[in-house]
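PROTEIN DESIGN WORKSHEET
SECTION A - STRUCTURE
LENGTH: 274
TOKENS:
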């Protein structure tokens, strides 16, 4: 499909400032800015994946698994805290089966997204119960950002991951099948890692994290899982301990021919130790 991918513009401001963004209003602070980003929307071809088995986590930054999961669509909005441990266990078991080289896998986040009918024209504020699709091409963490997240989510356990190798992974799927605003992934082999990636301070209410954003490059090749079902899992790497492995840069994209219901999705964030 032909659609627009939202990149970070190659702005001259980054010659003197580090990229940053917040997820909360700062209007009450004189002179404050929520971000110094400028969007660079590019018309790109996002191809439907034809052969799920050809995509490899260590080559392309993402892979596709088919595995049965159980999660009540309504409970994720009303009983998220009560049901997340059981869903985490399901996802961890699936990953252990498909990636036996991981010695330990620990989940630490369950994010639910439900597209507002007015998105993206109007982006609602942060919601405790669910969030909006994330439409800027990004990877959730930089190498440093992975460590910052571990320190935040597992306080006092720094000695455990010191000198250990690990991956920061996401496992993403729709809550109900739909072709509305699918998740698109950029083939890591098409990214110029020296020129295309911008480190970004992600300023949250309880954490200053660090992620990676993507600048446009005509060489990029984007893909999506057409007709993805609830048991079709997209697994992608956001970062690793040494910053040397393929990463899954991703973005929600508008499908101009969508006929399905508004997108609802669920994703688990995990750390997987070698």
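SECTION B - SEQUENCE
RESIDUE ASSIGNMENT:
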């Amino acid at each position: 499909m032909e659609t627009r991918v939202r990149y970070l513009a190659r702005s001259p401001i980054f010659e003197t400032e580090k990229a940053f963004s917040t997820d909360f209003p700062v209007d009450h602070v004189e002179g404050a800015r929520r971000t110094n980003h400028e969007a660079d929307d590019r018309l790109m071809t996002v191809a439907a994946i034809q052969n799920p088995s050809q995509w490899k986590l260590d080559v392309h930054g993402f892979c596709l698994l088919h595995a049965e999961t159980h999660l009540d669509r309504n409970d994720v909005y009303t009983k998220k805290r009560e049901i997340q441990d059981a869903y985490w266990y399901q996802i961890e078991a699936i990953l252990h089966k498909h990636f036996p080289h991981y010695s330990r896998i620990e989940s630490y986040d369950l994010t639910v997204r439900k597209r507002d009918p007015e998105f993206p024209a109007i982006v609602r504020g942060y919601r405790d119960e669910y969030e909006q699709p994330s439409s800027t091409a990004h990877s959730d963490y930089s190498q440093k950002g992975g460590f910052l997240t571990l320190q935040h989510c597992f306080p006092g356990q720094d000695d455990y991951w010191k000198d250990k190798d690990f991956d920061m992974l996401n496992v993403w799927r729709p809550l109900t099948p739909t072709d509305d605003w699918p998740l698109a992934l950029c083939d890591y082999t098409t990214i110029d890692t020296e020129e295309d990636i911008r480190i970004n301070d992600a300023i949250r209410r309880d954490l200053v994290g660090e992620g990676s954003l993507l600048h446009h490059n005509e060489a990029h090749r984007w893909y999506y899982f057409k007709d993805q079902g609830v048991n079709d899992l997209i697994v992608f790497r956001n970062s690793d301990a040494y910053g040397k492995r393929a990463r899954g840069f991703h973005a929600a994209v508008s499908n101009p021919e969508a006929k399905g219901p508004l997108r609802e999705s669920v994703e688990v964030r995990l750390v997987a130790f070698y």
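SECTION C - NOTES
The longest helix spans residues 80-98.
The CA atoms of residues 183 and 252 lie 5 Å apart.
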